[in-house]
């Protein structure tokens, strides 16, 4: 897979995520339901024919950034001492139990 294809693929998926932005940020669905939606709808599209891919570090980084962007939408910010903060990458990895799209 070329770098250009990967960038275009991730950009397309970012647009499709934007369409689902309302679903991922609403409180109508639980976090567990949003994660199930991610694992059944978004992740298979991203990793379509992934067993044939040979990823460079740049492509892996782009996919991990895309996945963390989705998890930040699902988990939302956290409140510490009355101050809202964005979740760190380490926290998102712990919450997803070490699973990521590249593995």
Counting helices, strands and paired strands, the structural category is mainly alpha
| General form | globular
Q: Any idea how many domains?
A: 1
How does the major sheet shape up? 2 strands, antiparallel
**Stretches with pLDDT under 50, minimum 5 residues:** none
- The end-to-end distance, rounded to whole angstroms, is 17 Å
Chain oligomer state: single chain
Query: Spatial order of the strands in the main sheet?
Result: 1-2
| Number of beta strands | 2
The Rg value, from CA coordinates, equals 14 Å
What is the string of helix and strand elements?
HHHHEEH
The mean pLDDT is 77
Percentage of residues in helical conformation: 55-70%
Strand percentage, roughly?
A: 5-15%
Word description of this protein:
The chain has helices spanning 3-19, 21-25, 31-46, 57-75, 89-95, and strands at residues 78-80, 83-85. With 103 residues, it is mainly alpha-helical. It has one domain (3-95). It has a two-stranded antiparallel sheet with strand order 1-2. Helix 1 (3-19) packs parallel to helix 4 (57-75) and helix 3 packs antiparallel against helix 4 (57-75). The longest helix has 19 residues, at 57-75. The chain is globular, with a radius of gyration of 14 Å. The chain starts with a helix and ends in an 8-residue tail after the last helix. The mean pLDDT is 77.
Question: What's a concise summary of this model?
Answer:
Helices cover 62% and strands 6% of the residues. It is mostly helical and 103 residues long.
